[in-house]
Amino acid sequence: MEPKIRSLPWYRRWTWKKAMLRSMCLGIIAFATLAGLVHWRLRASLPLLDGTLLVKGLRADVTIERDLQGVPTINSESRIDTAFALGFLHAQERFFQMDLLRRMSSGEISELFGAVALPLDEKFRKHRFQATAAKVLNDLPEPHRALINAYSDGVNHGLSKLGAPSFEFTLLRVSPKPWRSVDCIHVMLTMLADLQQIDAENEIDIGLLKERVPSDVFDFLIRKGSSWDAPLDGSMMQQPPIPPEAIWSLRSEPDKQSSGVEHTESNPTAFLFPRKASEQRAASNNWAVGSDLGKDKRAILASDMHLGLQVPTVWYRAVMNTPCLDGKRRRLVGVTLPGTPTLVEGSNGSVAWGLTNSYGDFGDVIELVPVDGEPDQYVTPDGPKSIERFKEEIAYPGGSKKIEYEWSIWGPIVAKRDKRRFAHRWVGDDPRANDMLICDLETAQSTDSAIRSCNEAGMPHLNVVIADRDGNIGWTLCGRIPTRSGPPPRSPVDWSKGGQWSGYLATEDYPKLVNPKESRIWTANNRVVGGDFLSKIGDGGYDLGARARQIRDLLRNKTEFDERDMLAIQLDNEALFLAPWRELLMKAVQGNERSLSTEFMRFVQQWEGRASTNSVGYRIVRTFRIQVANHFFETPRAEKNAAQRFGSIPKRAGIKRQVPMAHEDVLWQLLKERPQHWLPSEFASWDELLLDAAKSTEKEMSTGQPMAKATWGASNMAEINHPLSMGLPIVTGWLGMPNLQLPGDNHMPRVQRPGFGASQRMVVSPGFEEKGIYHQPGGQSGHPYSPYYKSGYDDWANGNASTLLPGPTKYILRLVPQKP
Hints:
The protein has 25 helices and 27 strands. By secondary structure, it is α+β, with helices and mostly antiparallel strands. Helix 16 (579-589) packs across helix 18 (616-630), helix 17 packs across helix 18 and helix 18 crosses helix 22 (686-701). It is globular.
């Protein structure tokens, strides 16, 4: 009889191969289950496209038709119902974007992203925007407040009809908060903060420079205007001479005083609208031609607003067939901003309008004069005042941080060091200067009435270019303009004995232009006017003017325009700005060709004169310009030299930020006259400096690849990503737009950089919207599962003329009032 074999326990019967195999199977099952749950959750958060919904609060039926690209057409019987429907759409398609926009100015980003966002929240909490927004909402006229309330109801109803919150909230493991009417005001304040410096860093930096150098040197570096200027009134500024050696010299012993003021980082909304340092001065273009030049005697408007590019796109396209606040029914066509209920830019059939940042000066920095022996008091025209202190607590996952801010009677203390305090008097901190009256622009019936609506609206300070159905064109500013006792100061001032603002400019005193003789109007963040009007607007850091001049000249080159002619100007990438630099490079290497490679010289000679994707020559010339500027302002060596020459001015202070990019004339004046006392001490001659810049250019262009592959397109690749990509790089490829090579650059009409450029392009003639053109760098939906998540991106990148009006209807959603 054979012995009985005892059965081994299960854990001894498994071989390591079986164990591994079963573990892998269990892992696959677990992963598949998790992926399935995530997939279900993502699909559940897709917006509703078809069907009928019963809705409380609607006055009448509303239909929402979408085309293949997801562009909605809202058909309603009241502006209130239209606002509700728009809020519903924004919530379904873009709520995470809206949430970021409201959290930015309210200082609540840390609640989503943790302690890493605390510096950003602290910067915004300093301005107490929550109190400002509440006051603005409370003071709105009843029709405008009702519009916002209806929009907010629509947002919350749209949220309630999603099967799951937007996928971003799922990944961040937070629940979205309901939308409040006051959040619409926060969105507008966030946009204002992106267009202007909320803490006046430039003005403080310029003040530091002014303290360190003779007045002639300061006026030479921080000049009033540029030879590139192309203002509408034709005014030009006389450029200052180079200060002689007896006044100041780069090659003499430097003054080593300390500046005593701490510099703060600029562009606080880079989190939402990311842009690189070299791109911060670029912004937007708009122009119009009157009936004398427009085809079929039509006025035509073109506009492309430049912002940091991201996913989803900044703007949400919409068509609204609706009665407006004046009771008249109109078709509103253009773009809306998620978080607000109005048409931001577009056409109402009678009037079309486009926007660019004005770069005027709408804030002053005041250095507080301390009271002797009282460190917490300062001098005012009404006697000593005490510093006010406000305490805030910023919550974030796992903790909170308590902070305290100081305020003066003029505004928040935005910078302090040692015993010096700097306050900022800024329109953004004044509830009277912020409202939603831009809604009234929807009701404009002519250029004149549109200008009046713009002048009465409290909103970001923008150039508004207008065209109407009768063939008229015009320009003006929107936003409150301070009235001062003199021209806006460019550096900190002392208000202890007076000099405060006396209020805001009357609407009849606003600068404006209607139907100029040449029937052309253009703006591109440049100085638009001079004389008395400039003394009211001030200079908040105008763009160089090269874009504006190129647009002006292209408009003057033709006597008739249609929509495609206007698009061609938007897409123009001719490198007129860099042409002089190419000539300078050719002269710099003349006689020294052997010190540079034959390949380098060949590409310099094959200069195409355009920022095209296949151009090596363009990239060489562009790099050469930067290398020349680096010898003065950008390299660590130059920063060290600048600190020695001007005192311990912080990085990115006045000379570094203002001269190489914004004031090209400073460099060219030095390069043409070549004064020895302005030559950096490491060079024996200007020729040596330029040759060194050429050699540095070749070295940079040759790094790691053949020069033939160092095209402009290889450097200018689109980087349009979702905000979550910064914290979760693994999702970048899934959520981002394709990394295509982009033609265009700064200082030309086609402004296109990897993460910055035209957030939209629009060409429209009011009343003839079917002929209009529209581009957008991404789709309507912020959901990656949406069939139109990336719709329109290729047309934007390649410059294809796509239609402004939606195409044939693909989906229909009906909102029906629910009976009590």
